[in-house]
Amino acid sequence: MRTFIFWSWKFGSWLKSSLRVIKEQGKMASMLRQSMRTCPLNAWAARFAARSLTTSSSLQAQVQTKSKKSLAKPGVKNIVLVDGVRTPFLLSGTTYSDLMPHDLARAALQGLLNRTSLPKDAVDYIVYGTVIQEVKTSNVAREAALGAGFSDKIPAHTVTMACISSNQAMTTGVGLIAAGQCDAVVAGGVEFMSDVPIRHSRKMRKTMLSLNKAKSLGQRLSLLGSIRLSHLSPELPAVAEFSTAETMGHSADRLAAAFGVSRLEQDEFALRSHSLAKKAQDDGLLSDVISFKVPGKDTVSKDNGIRPSSMEQMARLKPAFVKPHGTVTAANSSFLTDGASAVLIMSEEKALAMGYKPKAYLRDFVYVSQDPKDQLLLGPAYGTPKALERSGLSMADIDVFEFHEAFAGQIMANLKAMDSDWFAQTYMGRKSKVGTPPMEKFNRLQKEGGQYGLVAACAAGGQGHAMVIEAYPQ
């Protein structure tokens, strides 16, 4: 079994979904929400995902901001998210299978241009996040931008930080604007798990490189004669943590066991995610999704990995990692995905000058890191209290929470960690627990007005991210 780290969600849907949710709870995911960041997906989770696609900007509720203070700070530039789009997220190996990553990223960028009517020369910088890079287009941000018709005078670079790569792309854009380097940045994420790069073995690579340098026929024949059958064994992308040699799915299973998360709890949470996602899809609430005409194939208009099942069907699946007694299965894990997303970030002054009505302010954010062996997937538990403290907010102030769902067991373990005084005191140096979000605020669309949203995610390497967003007054 292998685990690949996604992120096209890369804030794809889960970050953008929280932005959309808060806008719905005040006119407002993938990363982008993944960000359905875009984010980690396991290679064998073929049928089900523990992702929630429950957001949209189609419901126009008015933001109720009078009851809470704004997080604006004197002398600090306000940075806003103007709008965002994503391609449909598809199971790898399906309709997108003959494309390349820059094709999907280009489609997202073109969709953003169409959605915002943004002049192509009005962007100062483009940043994309990805995890498994296509070697022919290692700076996929640049290639996708050129393909989408952006000026070749606009710099672009690509970042990677596992499941939070597009989060890093987005906050990089925030930093460029805050520093006065830029007024408008496009950030996004892309992942293409249908065609991950597979290398020759190291011995074969050395032989092939030596062949390029060989100056005579004799040298070439000698090198060719040195090739052995074992040299032809391919090298697949790493699917395990480099420092621990453990797959993410195995870590999720151990984490669930450590926090006493049962198989039943995980399956119930996964069913909730799929059911909410299906309802959002059927009701036309996923308004960030753009249609994409796949060359030589049909036009794709919706995600194909949303598949509500039943508790009885889910219970029949065998453990995917820790066998025979593990609790993580294909039904309560996220799936391998192909997809891309893009958002337009601006200084508030620039956005208003260009006639835009932003969707949200991007406020404080943090990155965290901890032990990758036993706490690999606890990024939200560590990042949430820090983001709240930086913003001067409490859990009760947050109107909607959007946590990246890699595994149902990972989500439930984070919630239990957040609700534990012992964990807070022993591992975080805090006097007491931060608490858990009410489930009616968790990865769900709410029509009533709201002001603050909190996005959080775990990532490979024991890292994590959290960000506070504020709905833009309507």
UniProtKB/TrEMBL annotation:
Pfam families documented for this protein: Thiolase_C (PF02803), Thiolase_N (PF00108)
Gene Ontology cellular component terms for the protein in this record: mitochondrion
Enzyme Commission number(s) of this protein: 2.3.1.155
One Gene Ontology molecular-function label: acetyl-CoA C-acyltransferase activity
Thiolase C-terminal domain sequence ranges: 356-470
Entry's Gene Ontology BP terms: fatty acid beta-oxidation
Pathway(s) the chain acts in: Lipid metabolism; fatty acid beta-oxidation
Thiolase N-terminal domain segment(s): 79-349
Classification via CDD domains: thiolase
Catalytic activity: hexanoyl-CoA + acetyl-CoA = 3-oxooctanoyl-CoA + CoA; an acyl-CoA + acetyl-CoA = a 3-oxoacyl-CoA + CoA; tetradecanoyl-CoA + acetyl-CoA = 3-oxohexadecanoyl-CoA + CoA; butanoyl-CoA + acetyl-CoA = 3-oxohexanoyl-CoA + CoA
Keywords: Acyltransferase, Cytoplasm, Fatty acid metabolism, Lipid metabolism, Transferase, Transit peptide
EC main group: transferase
Oligomer status and interactors: Heterotetramer of 2 alpha/HADHA and 2 beta/HADHB subunits; forms the mitochondrial trifunctional enzyme. Also purified as higher order heterooligomers including a 4 alpha/HADHA and 4 beta/HADHB heterooligomer which physiological significance remains unclear. The mitochondrial trifunctional enzyme interacts with MTLN. Interacts with RSAD2/viperin.
Family: Belongs to the thiolase-like superfamily. Thiolase family.
Function, as annotated: Mitochondrial trifunctional enzyme catalyzes the last three of the four reactions of the mitochondrial beta-oxidation pathway. The mitochondrial beta-oxidation pathway is the major energy-producing process in tissues and is performed through four consecutive reactions breaking down fatty acids into acetyl-CoA. Among the enzymes involved in this pathway, the trifunctional enzyme exhibits specificity for long-chain fatty acids.
NCBIfam families (UniProt xref): AcCoA-C-Actrans
Name of protein: Trifunctional enzyme subunit beta, mitochondrial
Organism this protein belongs to: Synaphobranchus kaupii
Lineage: Eukaryota, Metazoa, Chordata, Craniata, Vertebrata
